[in-house]
Amino acid sequence: MKNGRFTLPEKLQGKQGRTLLAVGIGFLAMVLILLSELFPARQTTAAAGEPLDTAAYQTQLEQRLETLVSQMSGAGKTTVMVTLETGEESVYAVDTQSGELQTQNTHVLLDDGSALTETVYLPQVQGVAVLCEGGGDVRVAARITEMIGALLDLPSNRICVEQRR
Q: Which residues, 6+ apart, have CB-to-CB distance to 3 below 8 Å?
């Protein structure tokens, strides 16, 4: 470091030195890419090869919505029920081999014989029912419907908010 500035060593100055530096940076980038392939990213839904428990997902979703709605002004004590359209759906990786006359698609298999999962889709929400103390107030019911619709990307006709006894 000279006068507060970083300077390259004598060997790396000049045209030949810059070429050597560029090659070194390129090599380092390739090593980092290789390492990223060796250590795949963590799966967020479930452990590798483990199916997501649909009932546990449904319960967790109900609890989170219940907690959120009960904290809204005017909602009061709340109970939430969620219904799901489908279970978890997996899309498997496919290897395509094309010849002159035909194309053949086969699933990519792992060493243990199972198919390689490419994408896992969470279950789709069919509808939500909310029972809360403030459900009889049209303004509270509208705010709850709007919030749940925004969170789950559901139309308002699939969300029911009612007064709790």
A: none
